[in-house]
DNA sequence: GCAAATAAGAAACCAAAAGTTTCTTATTTT
DNA sequence: AAAATAAGAAACTTTTGGTTTCTTATTTGC
């Protein structure tokens, strides 16, 4: 027997942040492949090449680890809200941004977490209304400056309406919105309400 | 020893529909008190005063029994859509009808079921878009007849918009909508889009 | 009214998965 | 180089979904 056995079984132990990142990545992969209710701690441990004890040293339970895995992927606020030169394209841009970042995984996790935790701080984490609000404030202010929209038309409801409708689509159909849906929401609902005429 | 023992332990066996109704009621109560993820089959059996075997003779698994318990409570289509004499009040009526029938329980179940089943036929069961569509068709036709709305304004999007926004509110906040919210959705979003002017 | 068929209820059972504990050993810290 | 720290393996407990078996109350059909 050679003394360099287990060529696949590295005894290179990861620790700290490196290990943690690998675990959370494994959670996201299991979530994608298995869905929330079939995601098991054993499965995560095996996929991450570690053991359950390591998971439970860091997170108290399944919900916590999934939450951590998802939280990492919540997009950071856009420093610059891109200016496409008109309100329509700006708002479409905002809605398109809600489509990305593995939205399916986010929603799968969301349903599971709400079921288990029941709380709604979650909603504001996974569907960050505050952020969309800020973005929409900028977008609508620009439209006012351009003369597309009168200042009185900018009400709280108009700030949230496009993202609310988009969120509804995402939650109900559990998949990214089509370009057609985005266009319909903007052209048939939002713009007629705010555009000057 | 008297031969009329067990004064509390009736040997009055319920069967068929009567038993089934008691079980589904127990499911709803457990759902309310425990939430979906803490609802156990043993708990349901005990509360209903029966045994697990009886449950599994009727339903294949936990999701099925919860689904059955909820399905019972989905309101039947309104034979008569009440006519309040104007579009505003008619639409408010439709949204108010979405508030009732233990909406919190419905939503708790909904999140759990989507997590476990993952499917979206659910959505159409628990948030019956078809029904709302039918109701809204009637309501809007009336408005056209009254001259409040022009026929071209009645698009598919306008048929679903009020219920979509209401559903979004319900799913996100997990509680009945306030009168103020209903009024805001109708007055600030829906009516301006469809009313003649 | 009685025998046979049916379904309820009790209880033991299995398997999967969450969560815990203990122990060994690789890696880092001092 | 020794001591402290944390990873990894594995066995273990508990809970719960789901199944099976058996007894017996109730219904059905004659």
From TrEMBL, chains A, B:
InterPro entries, per the entry: Homeodomain-like_sf, HTH-type_TetR-like_transc_reg, HTH_TetR, Tet_transcr_reg_TetR-rel_C_sf, TetR_C
Q: Which PROSITE patterns match?
A: HTH_TETR_2
Tell me any Pfam family this protein matches: TetR_N
The residues covered by the HTH tetR-type domain are: 17-77
Q: Is the Transcription regulation keyword given for this protein?
A: yes
Per the record, DNA-binding region residues lie at 40-59
Key words of the record: DNA-binding, Transcription, Transcription regulation
Q: Which SUPFAM superfamilies does the record match to this protein?
A: Homeodomain-like, Tetracyclin repressor-like, C-terminal domain
Q: Which domain of life is it from?
A: Bacteria
Name this polypeptide is given? HTH tetR-type domain-containing protein
